[in-house]
Amino acid sequence: MNYKIYTLGCKVNEYESEVMGDILENHGYKKSDNPDVCIINTCTVTNTADSKSRKLIRSVRKQFPNATLLVAGCMVQNKKDNLDDIDADIIIGTSNKTELITYLKDYQREKIFDVQDVLKADFENMKLNNFDLTRAYIKIEDGCDNYCTFCIIPFVRGHVRCKKHEDVIKETIDLVKDGHREIVLTGIHTGHYHDGNYSFANLLSDLIKVEGLSRLRISSIEATELNEQVLDVIKNSDILVNHLHVPLQAGSNKILKDMFRKYDTDYFKKKIEKIREIKPDMSITTDVIVGFPGETDELFEESVNTIKEIGFQKIHVFPYSDRDGTKASVMKNKVPGNIKKQRVKRLLEISKQGEIDFMEKHIGKDMVFIPEVYDNGYLIGHTGNYIHVKALGDKSLLRKEVTVKGISVDYPYLISEMSN
Fold this sequence. Notes:
The structure is a single chain. The chain has twelve helices and 21 strands. By secondary structure, it is α/β, with parallel strands linked by helices. The protein has four domains: about 1-115, Rossmann fold (3-Layer(aba) Sandwich), CATH 3.40.50.12160; about 120-240, Transcription Regulator spoIIAA (2-Layer Sandwich), CATH 3.30.750.210; about 245-360, 2-Layer Sandwich (Transcription Regulator spoIIAA), CATH 3.30.750; about 365-420, CATH 2.40.50.140. The strands form six sheets. The protein has a six-stranded parallel β-sheet with strand order 2-1-3-4-5-6, with helices on both faces. Strands 17-18-19-21-20 form a five-stranded mixed beta barrel. The protein starts with a strand and ends with a strand. The model has no long low-confidence stretch (mean pLDDT about 95).
């Protein structure tokens, strides 16, 4: 039997699709462009994401009319009462993705519809074995309790729930034994991890002790979760990489309040200052939404000034988009699309300059990077603080720690040479 998986949306969705592919492979299925089974992992983060999901479902059904079609994910969870137009054989939500073999066995030409109440769901244990890259991901958490006014995710992913810390540690040990040098901890709200009284800081402290682990990376963490215990682990560990992705979302206190974020700009700036005090070479990246309802030119300029003052190394910029069912979708003073495009362009220019400035600071300095790709004589990969390095080298060095010296910036790369 052959399969094909389509994924829309975030890194967590990508991870879960990889897990589903892994499960299929372990049951004898083969990845193919001529599939007997098609799986679509949907997204619902915006109204546009819903439309893309539905369009993809129609397209796949038309292209592979004889294949069994399983549709899963956030769009299904969000629209569970309005899916009569979905032409699929098996429809599930954000739960039970690891049970797809059971669903496929149970399917006997009569549609299966099984969308669980995600607000009552336990953590669904997932483990990915078939990594073929240096970097391996572990999903340690699911759900979110923040209820930001622009976000539908708490309603489709449910409350925060987490993998048992013993399972996380064992999975890390197994992945390192299989040759993975870097582990990335991921989830919907990764930094909110807890296992009873066992905290995220406790987890980090235990993981950095795993023999053979070169790098531990946090996919994303809120400023409010960078407490003294977590900062202490960061300060005293060379295994935790010098890179943190800390979402800002807006640099205006009024917009942050309207978004129902849990901090103001002063809190955020002081937290970043603290991080850079303990790790001066720390790369800080972020997310920013532009054009949130009520964002005037003056408030946008306030955001720009905050962003420049903080000095991020990279900014992921998103134009605000309505999401039915969120408080922001019914707010007044919507920002026109052409203005949002202009603001996106401006922040992307600031982001690019921030990346270049950070790379230029490393010219003439020795750095350790792990090559992930070999291309036409060049090794390409990332340093711990996420500088994109390109250096002439031998293919045998792939997935090994290599020391190089920065030579020049050829965006998006820091061209480097092997150190003696």
